[in-house]
Amino acid sequence: MPNPSPARALLDRAERHVKPIARWGINHGLPRVVLRVAARRGDLQGRLAVEATTGTDLTGLFDDMRSRGPIVTSKIGYLTARHTAVKEILTSDAFRTIRFLPGAGLLGKLTTWSASDLLHPVQPPSLLVSEPPEHTRYRKLVTRVFTVRAVERLRDRTQEIADELLDRLDLSKPVDLIEAYCGLLPVTVISEILGVPPEERATMLALGSAAAPSLDLGLSWRVFRDVESTLAAFDSWLTKHLDTLRANPGDNLLSELIAAREDGVGLTERELKATAGLVLAAGFETTVNLLGNGIALLARHSSQLQNLREDPGLWGNTVDEVLRYDSPILLTGRMCRRDTEICGVPIPRDTVVSTVLAGANRDPEIFDNPAAFDVTRPNARDHVSFGAGRHYCLGASLARMEGEIGLRAIFDRFPDLRALPGARRRTTRVLRGFENLPIALK
């Protein structure tokens, strides 16, 4: 076979090296600079983007946002931390999920040239960003498999997994519960949902953890390269896994999804991969954060643990209070389709609004004494951590079930566990939780 021409070799090199640099510059490098400059000037959008990665308490920032009205205009966009406004935006057909399409100028041409065909949780056909009519067909097929009844079938197995993990903990020394429990419980459940054999679950855990920053904007070059490498590795692994399940279907939800049909039409290969990737990225990572955040909160609030001992029926409500008080997801964005109003504030067409879910969950107009962690809170379930409207989290029932079992199991087994110094929050912006959580079990 003849060697490629020098010109062809140069183009191939551009494909391999220049395109990723262009993608990073457009999608992360430039926004990173803009957000940091805005933060230094006190812009609320910029401050939120920067401070969210530091692990600091954002309560004061949320209060500041709400004090400025239902919709805050910043130098780089609109945002809201008001519960009523967030719900209205997420349920209104005047808004769609953010999907930036390249324009006709130089930047648009560069975006088109450098685009990657990697599956990404915030790129179509992911359910996170699909819109009707594709979203309607897509979600209908997926919902037929991920039903509440299907999740309840996993309840006993989830309890078994939690018990097995707790049996293995070393009581003689401090334990990092993120590594030894909070990560392993959901990855084992997700692996069984996806039909992943036990010997490949360590790969799933590593891929899920490495892909967590993929939801963020303004990644560093190093993190961006790691994320793209992880997404490519996951795509390669998933191709082989889907082929295996087609040849040998198992008793798992992914095998059912492969076979699901609506009017004789099923999901395409890319849609199947997008669904599996979303289950891993959203279902796994958010549940890790829910468990870690919940353990940390209950370890600090002995009075709330006493409420649970006196009334174990409160464990389900406790999960919703954890989701409200320390939301595993900070925010989500929407693009305005047409000129509209939200809570009396005009929103122009083609503008982006950041709905700060964690801020809405602390809105005193909805929640009495929102700064208090209260497992008896009567309206804890009114939080918006699962979103709202047509993009309401498909895995909400699974997350609630895993959270209830995971939290109750560890405190039933180790009622005197203590949080130790050294806990560290994650540096991701959208996903909020602990990087490590050292605990003394006795």
From TrEMBL:
CDD domains xref list: CYP164-like (cd20625)
Record flagged with keyword Metal-binding: yes
UniProt entry keywords in alphabetical sequence: Heme, Iron, Metal-binding, Monooxygenase, Oxidoreductase
Pfam family, any one: p450
Entry-linked PANTHER family: BIOTIN BIOSYNTHESIS CYTOCHROME P450, P450, PUTATIVE (EUROFUNG)-RELATED
Similarity annotation: Belongs to the cytochrome P450 family.
UniProt protein name: Cytochrome P450
Organism: Kibdelosporangium banguiense
